[in-house]
Write a structure and sequence with these properties.
Number of strands: 0
Helix content: over 70%
Number of domains: 1
Oligomer: single chain
Shape: globular
Radius of gyration: 20 Å
Strand content: under 5%
Number of helices: 14
Length: 299
């Protein structure tokens, strides 16, 4: 039975779809059932994800990140590969320290370009239901991270930056991209399909383009290095930048509307941003290519 999955990437994808669907249903039930254990009343749980209760929203965010994104790829990979599951997920190889620092720096330098792509995305006509979903998600996100409190900042770096970065990269790059690559024998197609899926599953069309670009970047970091930790570092850096930006905005007494205005960037700045970031990424690619020649990674 296990050999059927080991030698057949399409079966690996079907297994992931099955485990992910089951986890999607079970996580909601389990998180609601366990909510009173963590001090949330049934009335609070009934309200669901509400900006008026950031603590409950963080609780649901953690359970979703772990139950829906983190566990399915880990369980599916372990079912098929057992002790080699970490190798399949590309999580067994430690990243090069310099490449890790350059990756974080590249994400920081790419912020103007990502902001510019988000502004372009926001100008596209969208159906009313999509606009409403995006507005609700933005309002909830602001309630979670728009705080001048240092303790809240540290909590948000864990709950909003680190845990989702690990969970989403395990699912979309560690498992999905790897299985698609094995199935199609086309790494670039696997990267872009994974990036589209990654962006679409967030159900925020106003951020589809920047999230897709980030997903493709994360995919290429894995493709170049053979280590899932580089895209995790990049993903965490991107999330952490948003958390820290909102924290400092709250510290200086700004509001959400003024922060959104400040994120508008010119096309020239975006062009300069992508040029510098691309050069850094090109250096990472060459460095990782040389490193993999010296220390081949197990298939």
């Amino acid at each position: 039975m296990k050999k059927l999955f080991t030698a057949n990437p399409s079966m690996q994808l079907l297994l992931l779809l099955f485990v992910f669907s089951a986890a999607l249903m079970l996580t909601g039930v389990v998180s609601v059932a366990l909510a009173p254990v963590f001090g949330f009343s049934p009335l609070q749980v009934q309200d669901g994800l509400s900006p008026s209760n950031p603590a409950l929203a963080r609780y649901f965010l953690v359970t979703q990140s772990v139950g829906v994104f983190m566990l399915p790829p880990v369980l599916a990979a372990f079912f098929i590969f057992r002790k080699r599951s970490c190798i399949f997920l590309s999580a067994a190889r430690c990243p090069d320290q310099r490449s890790a620092m350059l990756t974080a720096l590249a994400l920081i330098l790419a912020v103007p370009f990502i902001s510019f792509s988000a502004n372009v995305n926001a100008q596209l006509p969208l159906p009313e239901w999509a606009t409403r979903l995006d507005h609700d998600a933005t309002e909830l996100f602001a309630a979670l991270i728009f705080s001048p409190d240092v303790a809240t900042l540290l909590l948000n770096l864990l709950v909003i930056a680190l845990i989702p970065a690990v969970g989403e990269e395990l699912l979309f790059r560690g498992y999905l991209q790897r299985a698609l690559w094995s199935w199609t024998k086309k790494p670039h197609l696997a990267i872009f399909v994974s990036a589209v899926t990654f962006s679409a599953i967030h159900l925020q069309l106003e951020g589809f383009i920047p999230r897709f670009l980030l997903g493709a970047l994360f995919g290429y970091l894995l493709y170049w290095s053979g280590s899932l930790w580089l895209p995790i570092i990049a993903h965490f850096t991107n999330n952490a930048l948003s958390v820290v930006a909102y924290f400092y905005a709250a510290r200086r007494g700004a509001d959400i509307e003024s922060l959104e205005v400040e994120t508008s960037v010119s096309a020239l700045l975006a062009l300069a941003s992508v040029f510098v970031a691309a050069n850094l990424l090109s250096h990472i690619q060459r460095r990782e290519k040389l490193r993999r020649r010296r220390r081949p990674y197990p298939a």
